[in-house]
Amino acid sequence: MSVGTEPVADPQAADVPAYRAFHVRVRRVSRISPSFTRVTLAGDDLRFFADRGLDQRINLIFPHPEHGYPVFPEQDDWYLRWRAMPPERRNPLRTYTAGAVRHGARELDVEFVLHGATGPASRWAETARPGDPLVVIGPDARHRGEAGGREWSPPPDATRLLLAGDETAVPAIRAIAESLPAHVYAEVILEVPDHADGRPLLVPPGVRVTWLPRRGPGVPGHGHGERLSAAVREAASRLVAGGRRARGPEGAEERPAGRLEDVDVDAEILWEVPDAGSAAAQRGFYAWLAGEAGVVKLLRRHLVGDLGVDRGAVAFMGYWRLGRSDIG
């Protein structure tokens, strides 16, 4: 959500790429809860950062532990050049959701999930101090075309919504939930590590928010995704018309049309999102699910394979994979 002066379009910027590098420095670090910290980034160049809100993705490029940023490629084809570099020379890259943008103050907020020194992003966020440098690959407001990077695009007739994810999806889901119109009914389900990670969301009266901690007073230890999976199954049964597939004339359950292809989440990214043109609410139902890829895969199988939800009525996004070292 943008706060303050909007960026001014530059009539001479016809060839500005959709995404580019913004060089920023840490201005503030605010601990939100046991598992979350908010880092406020600042830099004069952020006056051109395009604030498109909702689940807008950005890339954060972290300093290389040995050489910082001197070899990071900044050309328009930076990603291809970055991929072509020897792994030991690459700056660590991770994908996050852009938080509040304050153009007048030249600030951008990004929320991090803290899980110790188990990855470059969490390690950096645990020790970030004012003045520390960072490179943000984000949308440029001067670009005249479609930039992409957002997946929340429900059809106009979607009035029963399901938003669910683990801690990595909290910033995106919060932004979406707080933007929902008053006429829709939505169930928002968020699984987080600690009972103190839950926080109030500024949502319309028709939006029900459920926080599911994996640990805390009165909460027995739960594995990642256990509570989320159970809650999503229960909510989907309520929200999908009837909660069951229609039965044929002889009482046998009808099979959903089409074949649900398997996705090997250990070898490929699970990212199945209907584009704005093909998204279609199923009798008013639309869902957006994100988080650990193995959990999202099982929920995909349940919604599409068991409940018969049309694949055009739900977005599935595997943000990360349990056991993989290239996250966080």
From TrEMBL:
GO terms for molecular function: oxidoreductase activity. PROSITE patterns: FAD_FR. It comes from the Bacteria. Residues 19-146 form the FAD-binding FR-type domain. This is Siderophore-interacting protein. InterPro entries: FAD-bd_FR_type (IPR017927), FNR_nucleotide-bd (IPR039261), Riboflavin_synthase-like_b-brl (IPR017938), SIP_FAD-bd (IPR013113), SIP_fam (IPR039374), SIP_rossman_dom (IPR007037).
